């Protein structure tokens, strides 16, 4: 790590371009989800996780871990999704219920996923191309691993479950 805390001009430009790209892309994709399918980015994230699980259900702590959301945010959002019929909370052997995707939730994710994937391809994958996409994947994995190591050694979180 550099001893100099400040970013040079090229580093600053790249960092700010990255931030603008991620905000612009996320905002644009979420607008389409909301306008075309009535789903928020958060709805989509929960439905993707549940639809990709073998049983169509997950424990809340698993959803919290995969989304990196705080417990209260997850709880409030799941309550809203349950009222809309996208998920249901089911009793299980544990003190806390499992979260299950409903038929309505599965229909919603099946309806929006192809259009969402097409937009991700158009605005992200095709812009990067295969060579740069491969490099981006490698660098992204390295950044996540570096942050994970930092959290494990230098700044452990109080409750990561």
Report on the structure:
This protein has 161 residues and is mostly helical. The protein contains five helices and three strands. The longest helix is centred in the last third of the chain and has 51 residues, at 103-153. It starts with 8 loop residues before the first helix and ends in an 8-residue tail after the last helix. The mean pLDDT is 92.
The Cα radius of gyration reads 19 Å
Q: Enumerate the spans where pLDDT stays under 50 for 5 or more consecutive residues.
A: none
- For this structure, the quaternary state is single chain
The CATH homologous superfamily is called: Winged helix-like DNA-binding domain superfamily/Winged helix DNA-binding domain
CATH topology: Arc Repressor Mutant, subunit A
Number of domains: 1
**Helix-strand pattern:** HHEHHEEH
Q: What is the strand content? A: 5-15%
Continuous helix count: 5
Q: Write down the overall mean pLDDT.
A: 92
Class by alpha and beta content:
mainly alpha
Q: What is the name of the CATH class? A: Mainly Alpha
């Amino acid at each position: 790590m550099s001893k100099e805390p400040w970013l040079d001009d090229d580093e600053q430009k790249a960092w700010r371009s990255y931030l603008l790209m991620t905000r612009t892309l996320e905002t644009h994709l979420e607008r389409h989800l909301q306008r075309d399918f009535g789903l928020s980015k958060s709805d989509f994230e929960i439905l993707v996780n549940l639809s990709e699980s073998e049983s169509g259900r997950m424990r809340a702590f698993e959803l919290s871990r995969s989304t990196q959301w705080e417990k209260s945010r997850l709880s409030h959002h799941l309550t809203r999704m349950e009222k809309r019929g996208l998920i249901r909370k089911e009793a299980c052997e544990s003190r806390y219920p499992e979260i299950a995707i409903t038929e309505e939730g599965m229909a919603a994710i099946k309806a929006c996923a192809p259009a969402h994937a097409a937009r991700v391809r158009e605005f992200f994958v095709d812009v990067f191309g295969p060579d740069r996409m491969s490099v981006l994947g490698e660098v992204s994995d390295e950044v996540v691993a570096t942050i994970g190591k930092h959290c494990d050694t230098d700044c452990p979180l109080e409750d990561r479950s």
